[in-house]
Each structure stands twice: as structure tokens, then as C-alpha cells.
Amino acid sequence: MSLIEALAAAEERGLDLVEVSPTAVPPVCRIMDFGKYKYQQSKRAAEAKKKTARVELKEVKMRPKTEEHDFQVKVRNARRFLEEGNKVKVTVMFRGREVTHPEFGRRLMEKVVEELKDIAQAESSPSMSGRFLTMVVAPLKK
């Protein structure tokens, strides 16, 4: 039908004439309540956004001389974060002259990866930046 007839029909019903496919020949239009249509679109977008998983970056800090029990507590926290689907940033902080022996921190990082290998993998290798040795651990894909 012509544009004038379509506009008249839409106005007669108290609705809007909405162009659905402008690239088609001839362009496809629909008679509908445009406000209701926009509301439904926003609802669908909100629902889709709700279903997407948001991954946060949680951090676990320790020192090169962290004792075994404290280390296990930190690993247990990291495990919980990973099970929730978050990534974990493991940081070893050096103080004073400890920074001259980064191998202690690297051993600690290797131990963390070994403890968490059943549910996680190292996303980035340990890297030194200032007095901090950092590494990111991500959960394994299901």
C-alpha cells in the first residue's frame, strides 16, 4: 500500500507506522505501538545483559616469607574466588633487601599454580614491577 494509505490506517487505529527494513525494495513498514516496541526491546537487552557473566579480578597478597598455614589460607581464598568464576591476581610483596632474591617469590608463585592446577591455569607468567611480583590466574574453561 502507498505511504499515505499506510499512515492513514495507522492513525485510524491510534498506532505508529514503523519502518522495519529500510534496505528492502520496497521498504517494509509495520503498524504498531512504537513506545511498547521500544520498551520490549529494552527489556530484552536488560535480560541479555543479566545473563552475561561478569568476571572480576580479585587479589591475593603474600610475602616471600609467608608461613605454610598462612599460605594455605591464601590459596583457599584464591580457590574460592576462582570457583565463583573470577580471575585472581597473585602478588608477592618484597620489603627491604628481600627484593634482591626474587627467586623466593617465583617459588611461591609456582607453588600457588601447583596448588590450583585442578581448577585454574596461569594466564600470565610472574612479572616483577618495582617491589611486587605479580601473576594472574584464570579459572579453567568448563
Notes on the structure:
It is rod-shaped, with a radius of gyration of 29 Å. The chain is 42% helix and 27% strand. The longest helix is centred in the N-terminal third of the chain and has 18 residues, at 34-51. It is α+β, with helices and mostly antiparallel strands and 142 residues long. The strands form two sheets. Strands 3, 4, 5, 6 and 7 form a five-stranded mixed beta sheet that branches. A two-stranded antiparallel sheet has the order 1-2. It folds into two domains: 3-51, Roll (Ubiquitin-like (UB roll)), CATH 3.10.20.80; 57-139, Translation Initiation Factor IF3, CATH 3.30.110.10.
* CATH fold group of the largest domain: Translation Initiation Factor IF3
**Strand segment tally:** 7
What is the terminal separation in angstroms? 53 Å
| Overall pLDDT metric | 90
Strand percentage lies at 25-35%
Structural class, from secondary structure content?
alpha+beta
CATH architecture of the largest domain: 2-Layer Sandwich
The secondary-structure element order is HEEHEHEHEEE
How many helical stretches?
Answer: 4
Task: Please summarize the sheet with the most strands.
Answer: 5 strands, mixed
Portion of residues within helices: 40-55%
* Cα shape: rod-shaped
CATH homologous superfamily assignment of the largest domain: Translation initiation factor 3 (IF-3), C-terminal domain
Low-pLDDT runs: none
What's the gyration radius in Å? Answer: 29 Å
